[in-house]
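Sample entry was shown:
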Amino acid sequence: MKARTILCALAATMMLFAACGKDDENNDTPAIVGTWEYHETQENIVREYTETMAFKADGTMSLYFTCYDTYENGDTWHYGISLAGPYTVDGNTLRLTLRHNGVMNSEDSDFTYNEPDMSEPAMEYEFTYEISGNILKVDKGGEQVFGHGGDSGVMEYVKK
């Protein structure tokens, strides 16, 4: 009976160590990894703006935004841009190095993706950010970057 108790205790201890090892591996993945979306609607011109950022564990990310504007006179304007490149996180600092990867044609509202133009200098950005639950807040320093920046420059993205 003592041998069985000792074996059970040993097995439980081994499972505990195995579980701890798995948690340690998951802690190497930055919390920012995943896909995040920001939505904005403006009534004065009927604007629907969506910005999506997708961060991969390998240190690369993609960002695209689309905007559909309808003006009081009925005119419409549709546009969008896709950017891609590496990112790093250091504490609450997010650094992006991005190149244009595609544009949306305003007539047919479809993205045309292309290889990034390596002759064009990469755009470098540095923002502060914080994650709370499924909300990613990115402080763009009051600047409207990529397409928009929110009224205060702080944009709240929701994890998809």
The beta strands are 34-42, 47-55, 60-70, 76-90, 93-104, 111-113, 123-132, 135-139, 154-159. Helices lie at 2-26.
